[in-house]
Structure formats: structure tokens, C-alpha cells
Amino acid sequence: MSDIKEARAVRYLLDAVNDASIIVPALDEGLYSMAIFHAQQVSEKSAKACLSLLDILITDEHIYTDYLVKFVIPESKNLSKDFMKLLPDVNRLESYYIPSRYGVDRFGKIHYRKYDENEVKNLCKSSTDFLELCFKFVEDKSGRTTPRQREELEQFFVENYYKFIRELR
């Protein structure tokens, strides 16, 4: 039977897949800051899936690339080169968390950035590539094949990890 670390990892992957589903509609509408925000969320939640499988929880932080380098990449074996290849883009996405989502931050600083369409598309692609890589990491560590489609992944999550789910009513 599965354990709670695995349940957390799959739940993070489900959250990442949900965010990934927003990227293409945002790009189609020219909402580049929203596409970047959701790409950042995909990479953050994907990273947290890998980290949670290693029993590392960083729930209140949005800084995750250092944790990737320190914990995930050394544990990733044959995937380490792929992680290193995507790390610069994932790091870049990490830095876009606040300015892509909030026009005014908690310190009152005002953010505005004009995004380059090609840069946004490339970073969005990197985030979905990173998601796939994190799926592979979780599968390698758990020994289980995980569905990639949102509906199937949700069903897989509920069926396999129901004893760890806390329903809110």
C-alpha cells in the first residue's frame, strides 16, 4: 500500500496538471502574465511533488530551486541531466511568482512587466517539460505509473490515496 509521502506527491502533481490546463487558454488570449504565473505554479507544484516524496515539505515558500539542487537532483539518477537542463528556466519562473500575479506586492511595490510572447511560450513549454520530468521522478521513486490526464490522475489519486484525504465540508 502507498504511503502519505506518495499521496502528497500525487496531489501536488494533480495541482500542477490543473495549473497547466490554464496556460494555453491564457496564451490564446494574450494574457502573458497569467500564462507565466500558471507556468510558475506548474513548476513549483511539480518541484514540491518531488520534494514531498523525499519527505521534504515547503508549503509556505515559493522558493524551490535551491531545494531541487540540494535534494531532488542528487536523488534523480538518470534524470539529473534533464533536471539540470531545465533548471535555468525553472529558476526564472520562480522569480516571476510575485510580479506575474500581483500588480502591487505586500510591501506596496508596484510591478509592471511587458512580456515577450516568444519568451513566455518558451518558459511555458519548459514548465510542462518540467512537469513531465517530475512525473518520471515520482514514478521512479514510487514504482507506480501515474496517469497524465487530469481526470484520470484525479481518479487515480482518490482511488489509491483515499485514506490520506481529508474532505472539507
Account of the protein in words:
This protein has 169 residues and is mostly helical. It has a single domain, classed as Four Helix Bundle (Hemerythrin (Met), subunit A). 69% of the residues lie in helices and 0% in strands. The radius of gyration is 16 Å and the shape is globular.
TL;DR?
The protein has helices spanning 4-28, 32-53, 65-75, 80-95, 97-101, 117-142, 150-161. The chain contains 7 helices and no strands.
- CATH topology name, in short, is Four Helix Bundle (Hemerythrin (Met), subunit A)
Helix % is 55-70%
How many angstroms separate the termini?
A: 27 Å
Main sheet attributes: strand count, strand direction, barrel closure: none
Please report which band the strand proportion falls in: under 5%, 5-15%, 15-25%, 25-35%, 35-45% or over 45%. Answer: under 5%
Strand and helix order: HHHHHHH
Number of strands: 0
Structural class label: mainly alpha
Number of helices: 7
Topology record:
Elements: H1 4-28, H2 32-53, H3 65-75, H4 80-95, H5 97-101, H6 117-142, H7 150-161
Helix pairs in contact: 1-2, 1-6, 1-7, 2-6, 3-4, 4-6
Name the features.
mainly alpha; single chain; globular; Four Helix Bundle (Hemerythrin (Met), subunit A)
